Amino acid sequence: MIDFSNIVSPTDRYNFHSHTQFCDGRADMAVMAEAAVKSGMLHWGFSPHSPVPIESSCNMPMDDVAPYVEEVQRLKTVFGSRISLYTSMEIDYLGDDWGPSHSYFDTVPLDYRIGSVHFLPCGDGYVDVDGRFDSFKIKMERFFDNDIRHVVETFYRQSVDMVEAGGFDIIGHFDKIGHNASMFAPGIEDEVWYGKCVDRLVDAIIKSGVAVEINTKGGEGERRIFPSFRYLPRLVESGVTIVVNSDAHYPDKVDAGREEVIKRFVKKIDNYNN
Questions:
Q1: Distances 99 to 20, 120, 222 between C-alpha atoms, Å
Q2: Cα 102 to chain centroid, rounded
Q3: pLDDT tens column, 241-250
Q4: Is residue 83 situated within a structural domain?
C-alpha cells in the first residue's frame, strides 16, 4: 500500500479520488489521465465506485473489475514516467455484509482503498442518501419518515463501524451527510448532538491511522468542502495525514477546487503547528 504522507509532503500535484467510464464518471480513463498530465499532476489515482451486492446505477459491475484493472496497467505503460498512476476503488460500506474489509477486495490488486458511506440501511435494504437534495428530500419522506436525526446518527454510526472494521487507507468525504442534512434542517450541524456524532467518528479515525481526504468536488467558489474545516485542526494536531482530492468525474475537473482549498485551508493549518 501507499504511504500517502511521503507523497503529499513534498508536492500538492496529486489526486487520489476520481471516476471514469467504469462507474459514474463522464470520460474514459485515458482522457482523464491525459487531462491530469496537462494540469501538472505527478500522481493520479483511479477510484471507481466498487461493486456492491445491491442495485446501484453508480457502482461498477463485478464483471468490469478485471477490465478496469487491465486498463490501469495498460495506461501505466502508455504514460510511463509522465505521471504515476494508481489502481484503487471507492468502496461502499454496507455493514457486516460488504465494505472495504470484505475478503473480496483482497482478490483485487489495488494500490490503496477509499472507504465511504453513501448508503444507509432501511428495512431489508439500503438507500442512497448521497444524491441531490431534491432526491434526498423525497427519500426522507418515503423511507425515513422525515426523521433527519435518525438519518444523521445512522450515517455517522455506519462511518464509525467502517473505520473500526478497517481494510482501507483513505476515508472519503466523511461528513458529506451534512450537506443534505443542513438543507433539510438548517443549523443542524451546529447542534450539540450532531457535533458529538462527528466527534465519535474523528476519535475512531485518529485511533485507526487512516488518511482523511478533503474532498473539493463541491468546494469551488464559496461552496463547501468535505469535511468542513471546523473538523480539520484536531485531525492535524493528532498527526492524521490529509490528502486533498478533487473527486473528478470530468476531465476539465481534475484539479477543481484543489488550489483554492490548499491556499485557504490546508496552509492555514500551519498556524496550529507553530
A1: 21, 13, 33
A2: 18
A3: 999 999 999 9
A4: yes
What would the grid cell of residue 175 be?
Answer: 461528513
The count of structural domains within the chain is: 1
Residue 5 located in a structural domain: no
H/E run at residue 272? helix 270-273
Q: How far apart are CA 251 and CA 209, in angstroms?
A: 31
Q: Report the distance separating Cα 211 and Cα 5, nearest Å.
A: 9
Note the pLDDT tens digit of each residue in 184-231.
Answer: 999 999 999 999 999 999 999 999 999 999 999 865 555 688 999 889
Which residue carries 478485471 as its cell? 66
* Domain of residue 194, CATH code: 3.20.20.140
Strand ranges (E), the chain = 14-15, 43-46, 84-92, 112-116, 119-122, 125-128, 170-171, 211-215, 242-245
Domain that holds residue 227: 12-273
